[in-house]
Design a protein that fits this description.
By secondary structure, the protein is mostly helical. 50% of the residues lie in helices and 12% in strands. A 3-stranded antiparallel sheet has the order 1-3-2, sandwiched between helices.
Length: 129
Amino acid sequence: MGFKEKLRSVMQEHNWSQTYVAGMVGRSAGTVSLWLAGKTEPSETRCEDIALALGLPVNYFRDAPDTGFRRLTVEQTARVLGTSKDTVRLGLQQGVFPWGYAVQTDGGWTYIINGGRLEQIEGVKVEGG
């Protein structure tokens, strides 16, 4: 299964629209449409970024094995960093944390936090990871 099939599959599984995916990955709905039509395909690095932005394993769009992406909650992240949930949310919304993303949708904010990146960048240990 190629990129467009995997993207379509995950979108159907989660009932995500092209507009929602576009917002999550920082691209236009037109670009997502081109991906789904197979007219263009993102680079390998961009595929990894897309997977992380959607809360998927970094290798989701490749045939390589899973690298163990661990999606953390805001609560888990705040506990590990010894800070408040509001601080984590605000930092993600402002784009200041390199280990996560926040995307505003009609339903509110969605937070994607990569536990492996958090450990690596902040020098902390995430329990269970």
